């Protein structure tokens, strides 16, 4: 289902990205509309798949997850069975917050959030015991400078 996004929809989406916990009344006021038309637009955007799962963002450090590693993976295996096994291994590990297949010299990059370096090592050992990889490079993030889930909706 294709949906046309107009300026009011963009404003609603921007408000939801900023804080999805706002009341319908707060969103309507922010976009200069009333509750019923805003609700109808939100419903249509959900039905069209523009708005996906709603969740909360937790403070990882406050919960003791102090280390973020970016894991670069090179593999010499590109068969369908290997890929299925690799994807299954990633899906089963809650430490993996993101996984991307790349073009270029690196095949995959993972964003892994763990409590500390020892926890990363346990993750790494478990992963390589299940899936054959050619080369793994782990980069420890020293400081998170920017992190957002918000899309640039203007225009």
From TrEMBL:
BP-aspect Gene Ontology terms: regulation of DNA-templated transcription; response to amino acid
Residue span, HTH asnC-type domain: 5-66
Origin superkingdom: Bacteria
Annotated InterPro entries: ArsR-like_HTH, AsnC-type_HTH_dom, Dimeric_a/b-barrel, Tscrpt_reg_AsnC-like, Tscrpt_reg_AsnC/Lrp_C, Tscrpt_reg_HTH_AsnC-type_CS, WH-like_DNA-bd_sf, WH_DNA-bd_sf
Keywords assigned by UniProt, alphabetized: DNA-binding, Transcription, Transcription regulation
GO molecular function terms listed in the Swiss-Prot or TrEMBL record: sequence-specific DNA binding
PANTHER family in the cross-refs: DNA-BINDING TRANSCRIPTIONAL ACTIVATOR DECR, LEUCINE-RESPONSIVE REGULATORY PROTEIN
Identification of the protein by name: ArsR family transcriptional regulator
Organism: Marinibacterium profundimaris
């Amino acid at each position: 289902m294709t949906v046309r996004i107009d300026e009011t929809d963009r404003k609603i989406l921007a408000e939801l990205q900023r804080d999805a916990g706002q009341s319908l009344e707060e969103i309507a006021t922010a976009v200069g509309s009333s509750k019923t038309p805003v609700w109808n637009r939100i419903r249509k955007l959900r039905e069209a798949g523009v708005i996906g799962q709603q969740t909360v963002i937790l403070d990882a450090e406050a919960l003791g997850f102090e280390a973020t590693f970016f894991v670069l993976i090179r593999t010499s295996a590109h068969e369908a069975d290997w890929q299925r096994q690799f994807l299954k291994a990633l899906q089963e590990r809650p430490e993996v917050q993101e996984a991307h297949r790349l073009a270029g010299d690196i095949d995959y990059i993972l964003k892994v959030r763990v409590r500390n370096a020892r926890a990363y090592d346990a993750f790494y050992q478990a992963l390589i015991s299940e899936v054959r990889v050619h080369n793994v490079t782990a980069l420890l993030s020293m400081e998170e400078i920017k992190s957002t889930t918000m899309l640039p909706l203007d225009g």
